[in-house]
Amino acid sequence: MGLFRRGTHGRTAEDAGVENAVEGQDVEDAVVDDDALDAGTDDAATNGQVTEAHAAAVRTGGPWDVDDAPGAGPRVDLGAILLPAVQGMELRMEIDKATGAVSAAAVSVEGSTLQIQAFAAPRTEGIWDDIRAEIAESVIKQGGSADDLPGPFGRELLARLPVRTAEGRTGHRPARFIGADGPRWFVRGVVTGKAAVDPAAAEAIERIFSDIVVVRGAEACAPRDLLPLRIPGERPAIVPDAAEPSSPSFDPMARGPEITEIR
Fold this sequence. Notes:
Number of strands: 13
Strand content: 25-35%
Shape: globular
């Protein structure tokens, strides 16, 4: 069964997800030194102390279920996802042109982007292990490669997604697929940019992911159905912590939110 259920238009669900991971980004930035990427992969796979130290420094226990979330400052209300409001971040909402529904949120900060989606999941078991295998298969089918590695949120994929530059050269864009299983939900992130290959650059993005709150709701949903997102402003956008002022002292969405249609 595929990960996505909307807007694939004849492609498999995993194919659509992999392609969306690189949409709207500068192809020139996609060409990477595969030797350098291989070296980073080997280090992550073999140096357990570095990996564990990085994971401990980043993960604080989330993503969270709404019933268990700590008060950790203001968040942007996107419906099924309450997104941490971080100074300097840009938020883009992705719209499925076929349905008009918001299909994903994408946060850009410090030269990296995190695409986020939340899904329904079975009550008794997680789905990330199966989804991770399906994404890896899709990446390989499209001419890329994927390594299953330990990370701050458990197992994750470091993928090389094939792209073509303006000069007609073939390159690879690195992308990390991260995920977390929760009670009757699953949240998935796709990390691109510097955070895909540089642990130091990844910390800001990973802290955002670790502080996401998922609002599953009581509605009956089939496993892997997208949980509904909405554009900020359809309801009060900021959900403040009880100890915080009613509005943040900075504008976390100085340019947005932008809206991107996914065909």
